[in-house]
């Protein structure tokens, strides 16, 4: 029973990622794409967690941590590009 | 450009805490490469991501005040360390890249497995950090 629920939720995560991919390609504005990329990261983390429950292993926990860090950095870089036009500044204006 | 002053106090406060978690994970992955997934390349990538996160959040001059490294020289030092540990085996009459390992009794740590692969991996990590930060800074710098 729990196995079937896990596989069903994995399938639903894949559907969600496919829909978010549509939003990235089609997305009218850049903030739509930033939100979609961040949500794909969260969905991938959850999917990896469920895979590691199904396979009964702890080997993927570091992959979850690294994916979380990379999604965080990617979202920050994308939103900074939207807000300021540059990603790494020579000297911040304040 | 926008004249509105941008308020990023939340980002700066969060990054000040998160960057230590990222760097700790990088060091853990570097030493986990002994028996588990990890190693110099992945550890270097995570450490480089932490440094890039600092560069994104703050600006180049602020980070250079705390970390006055030329990252091209860091990459060169890493290559020197790796090839040095590879060539050093020639002086002991062993083939190129032969690594040595042994068990040592260290106080507080107990019996520890030490190996010269760690030096090689440290060189790989430094090379990856230097190359990653140099590439990111070159392609994303303004002006």
From TrEMBL, chain A:
NCBIfam families: PRK12600.1. It is found in: Cell membrane. GO terms for cellular component: plasma membrane. Keywords: Antiport, Cell membrane, Ion transport, Membrane, Transmembrane, Transmembrane helix, Transport. InterPro entries: MrpF/PhaF-like (IPR007208). Belongs to the CPA3 antiporters (TC 2.A.63) subunit F family. It is a multi-pass membrane protein. This is Monovalent cation/H+ antiporter subunit F. It comes from Lysinibacillus odysseyi 34hs-1 = NBRC 100172. The chain crosses the membrane at residues 6-22, 34-54, 60-82. Pfam families: MrpF_PhaF.
